[in-house]
């Protein structure tokens, strides 16, 4: 899968998510995600950002559509392929999901569970596992905290540990669901700088949902804007005009793209530009 923009890492084709209560959180969505890109998802609360992220790694089962990943023929339909995909897919959560009374090291080692067989999980961690975990903790600048309880760390430090836990998995794809939403602006920027730098250095493909438009502008190679479960913008930070932003965050139920958002969409340098409403079954 290669395009003018480079090698494709991930393809979403017509992914639709309707939850058990009948609510369609994601209308048919198709995206081509380039290898090594830092893609930011923007959108108001309830727009479908988490649903999109979770449908990529199967935490939410798409009602329709297909996720395919480079190097994994046949997509992630079979259980075997889904497990293989997840093995290379690190996840960073807003609330870190650390076990507070466990040490930082023990928490980071959890990131290695997906690469162990179910029986092997019963065995103690090997020296090389521990060294890898310590190296990941060092990368996020917290080696001196390796033996501290996770709940003694600040919010920003805990999120750095969440990143280390994802890194120890040696991911190719990193999904981060509002990773800095609960941090103060300065800490949020420094945690996102760390995440961005690591992704670029390791050439990881990253898909990150954010609420802070300024941070999206600062870090994103590409911004995908969701509104009421539909992609209404797909472009660069420069193309994210005030008007597009207003469309994304408008309170009105209307999701018609504005003229300038359509222009931005039309000018998108990516293979799969936004799908304005007229392209989507409503
Ligand atoms: N398990 C579920 N069952 C039913 N509806 C759900 C479920 N999870 C999410 N939703 C609904 O789907 C829509 C999209 O939710 P989602 O969490 O994906 O949005 P979001 O953009 O990530 O929001 P936020 O920024 O607040 O996290 C919302 O209307 C939400 O209420």
UniProtKB/TrEMBL annotation:
Keywords: ATP-binding, Cell membrane, Membrane, Nucleotide-binding, Translocase, Transport. InterPro entries: AAA+_ATPase (IPR003593), ABC_transporter-like_ATP-bd (IPR003439), ABC_transporter-like_CS (IPR017871), ABC_transpr_PhnC (IPR012693), MetN_ABC_transporter-like (IPR050086), P-loop_NTPase (IPR027417). Gene3D superfamilies: P-loop containing nucleotide triphosphate hydrolases. Residues 10-253 form the ABC transporter domain. It comes from the Bacteria. GO terms for molecular function: ATP binding. Residues 254-282 are annotated as: Disordered. PROSITE patterns: ABC_TRANSPORTER_1 (PS00211), ABC_TRANSPORTER_2 (PS50893). CDD domains: ABC_PhnC_transporter. The keyword Cell membrane applies. This is Phosphonate transport system ATP-binding protein. It comes from Hydrogenophaga palleronii.
């Amino acid at each position: 899968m290669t395009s003018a923009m480079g090698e494709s890492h991930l393809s979403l084709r017509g992914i639709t998510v309707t939850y058990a209560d009948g609510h369609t959180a994601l209308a048919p969505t198709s995206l081509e995600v380039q290898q090594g890109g830092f893609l930011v998802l923007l959108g108001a609360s309830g727009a479908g950002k988490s649903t999109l992220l979770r449908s990529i790694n199967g935490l939410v089962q798409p009602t329709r559509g297909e996720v395919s990943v480079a190097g994994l023929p046949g997509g992630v339909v079979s259980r075997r392929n889904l497990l293989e995909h997840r093995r290379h897919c690190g996840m960073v959560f807003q609330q870190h999901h650390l076990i507070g009374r466990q040490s930082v090291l023990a928490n980071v080692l959890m990131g290695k569970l997906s690469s162990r067989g179910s029986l092997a999980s019963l065995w103690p961690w090997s020296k090389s596992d521990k060294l890898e975990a310590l190296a990941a903790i060092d990368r996020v600048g917290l080696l001196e905290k390796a033996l501290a309880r996770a709940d003694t760390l600040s919010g920003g430090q805990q999120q750095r540990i969440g990143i280390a836990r994802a890194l120890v998995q040696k991911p190719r794809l990193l999904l981060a669901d509002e990773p800095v939403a609960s941090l103060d602006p300065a800490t949020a920027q420094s945690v996102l700088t760390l995440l961005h730098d690591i992704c670029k250095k390791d050439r990881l493909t990253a898909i990150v949902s954010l609420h802070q438009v300024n941070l999206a502008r600062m870090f994103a190679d590409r911004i995908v804007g969701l509104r009421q479960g539909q992609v209404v913008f797909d472009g660069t930070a420069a193309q994210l005009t005030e008007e597009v932003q207003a469309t994304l965050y408008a309170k009105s139920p209307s999701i018609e793209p504005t003229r300038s958002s359509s222009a931005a969409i039309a000018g998108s340098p990516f293979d799969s530009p936004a799908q304005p409403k007229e392209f989507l079954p409503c």
